[in-house]
Amino acid sequence: NPAKITVSPGGSWRLWPFFRRSRSGKAMQPVISGTKSSDTEVASDSINDRDGNRSVCKTNMAKKKIKVLTPTSEQLASLNLKEGKNSVTFTFSTAMLGKQQVDARIYLWKWNTRIVISDVDGTITKSDVLGQFMPLVGVDWSQTGVAHLFSAIKENGYQLLFLSARAIVQAYHTRRFLFTLKQDGKALPDGPVVISPDGLFPSLFREVIRRAPHEFKIACLEDIKALFPSDCNPFYAGFGNRDTDEISYLKVGIPRGKIFIINPKGEVVVNHRVDSKTYSSIHALVHGMFPHTTSTEQVFFLHFFFLCSILGLFYFRCSVLK
User: Fold this and answer.
1) Which CATH entry fits the domain spanning 112-289: 3.30.1120.10, 3.30.460.10, 3.40.50.1000, 3.30.930.10?
2) pLDDT in tens, 245-263
């Protein structure tokens, strides 16, 4: 009998496999018993002739394909991605349903992009549980002023990333809710919607019963952060509604002063201080809290140029004195 091939599962967690690099590759390597080959198995049929000599009649080669979760750099380059949002379609076939398609989006950002993270339930919506069901029956359950604030942040050069511990089966409804939300004619800015790859019941158990959605969020944000240079933290600020959101944001290097926790009254708490701020009042201060990225880069280069000028003048005077 051919040697049995078993593939060690990637595991539901660390729950977030989509940005795995070397770790996912190791997790998906086949483990083969009785052979040294990692992707083939050899079965030989032999027979003894009248003289007792053993000869091999045929050799069967069975190849095992290995599924990977992360595309290579060459595969990504062949997609000819443009900066910003790119729409892609996965096509596959099933025995029961036939040919199927799944739409997705790939976001291409620069290495120095500044990302503002936002939770969904209780942060964009007014509450955790009702925020998932009220939009399904046509009731507006969104926080007042959130669309205007997030749009102003995007206009100042930041990218919005929507992070939720909702299950993967809620992906379509979550994305539809976010990008059809309008307040006084203002819509939420476009951005990636990152949610849990778990099913509905495991996600609800983790978030509602165990109250530990930060386990998923921390690991997910760390994987996204690993896509950027090691000396560059892409996360600039974070919005949430729970202490677990603050724990997640602190873990990936967001300072306390840039973590905004909204309580059930609609008040925004910064560093555990309630100043009766709302999304609307923060919107009035958005240019101070979220300065335009081009202006901050210009200020940096002006300071750098001024420092170089001072050093050059000092070197010139030292040369004259000599």
Assistant:
1) 3.40.50.1000
2) 999 999 999 999 999 999 8
